[in-house]
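Bumping with the actual sequence this time:
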Amino acid sequence: MSRTVQDDRPRTAGWVRVRLTAPQDPRGPRGVTLTEGELVLRADRVAVDEGALVFLCSDEVVFQLDRRYFRSMAWFVDRPTFAEWLRSRRKQFPNSHTRWSTEEREQLAKELSGGHNWQKIADVHGRTVHAVQREAVKDGLVTADAFPRPGIV
């Protein structure tokens, strides 16, 4: 006999978007030059603690940010939950956030050796171009240097 469990949790969550800026010393960890960026995370409040912003969700710390990196912040009350976001994302990319099978990896290697372009490969696999490129790097089919990340010099 199966039971249906009623999930009464709200379908929306408190989210915050934090705009980041590089501190006075632009050299970051491991020699990476820091630039401006954006961080979006789930939180319902923020506390200030000795030079750091502490983001909390249900009284648990979810992230700490050195205030030197802080530029601005905006709150979202009705942002969709991850499950809702994933359902909508899978309408466009059916295999989004699913594991790659051995067969799918073998097919990726054949497609790359056959000279297919990234968009065509992504469409066949039901994934984003970035996801396909990331898997190709992970499998050693191409080097990460082939895909420069924006904002990193």
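The tokens above came from a reply further down the thread. The longest helix spans residues 102-113.
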